[in-house]
Amino acid sequence: MSRIIFSSQENSCMYALKEFKKINSEIKLIDWLKPGVGLIEINDSFHNISNKILDNKAVFIRHIFPVLDEIKINQDENDLNLILNAILNLIDIIDKDKTFSVQCKIIESKEKGPYKKFHVNSFISEYLESKMFKIDIKDPFQVISIVLKDNLCYIGISQAKLNLSNWTLGEHRFKHMEDQISRAEFKLMEAIDTFKIDLTSFKNALDLGASPGGWTKVLLDYGLRVVAVDPADLNEDLKKNKNVHHFRGLAQDYLKISDHFDIIVNDMRMDPIDSCKLMIELSKHLTRDGIVIMTLKLPHKNIEKILHKSINILIKLYKIEFARQLFHNRSEVTLIIRHKS
Fold first, then answer.
1. What order do you get walking across the sheet with 69-72 strand by strand?
2. Residues of the chain with pLDDT under 70
3. What are phi and psi of 130, to 5 degrees?
4. What is the pLDDT of residue 110?
5. Is the four-CA dihedral 16, 57, 46, 102 of positive or negative sign?
6. pTM for the full model?
């Protein structure tokens, strides 16, 4: 029997819970720690549950970690020592030859404690580093997960790959840059990072529904040449970029062109079924080893039915490598697809 904390988008938490039940019917919801963050008990090992989530391509479960200890805290400065002592009781689980990071989430009640998550992360990390453990915040092999709510602290230790995301509760955050065109850039950046997409060998990209050009900018940052398709204008800086060609028209109009691309991205505000039908038509523009990164805009009703129909359209020609509702998605799902071999 395992206790697991999982996260999802707030408006998708019940869908995430249903995905767990499909994987293992012997599941019990213990508590919602906050909207989109649940504590469950499930009759299987954490390792098996994680692999089944990946094998079943669960969409709405964003992040998980195993709860190995639950301690009472007092919401005072001594809590840091209590948490450290609890982790030291589990120290044999941590592989000293592999990198680690500490990820803390404080779920605040009306009264705020005397410390922030930064203090918890630093206190634990600095102690372990002094004992010759190797820290890697960005891409750790293993993660010490800590969630605090009121007078309880939940602690877990696990391999980062089993957590589904390298970020605390899957909350993948990026620094705002001065040259940022739109917040939509974060969606593509998160997909590339979460699914470990290697773009180094790619040269040509097609961006469908590009305006104002956030995704085009991200692709340019990876050194690609981009055909940006949209009847609306692009950002002024993109207009001047020699590696951008603006096709001023609808994505449907581009079907008449014979170009081929290593990567096609699609973040269009379109009915998901229509968007998938369009991607079937556009498959002839994708090179044999190319990939598609696309978002499906979810409706307010019949979400599971529409998602199932959409994916069934795509699998006629494509292999679905990943399908997940990421942190920056909001009411949509990101898909990574390739030609069927």
1. 69-72, 152-159, 142-149, 99-107, 134-135
2. 110-111
3. -65, -20
4. 60
5. negative
6. 0.93
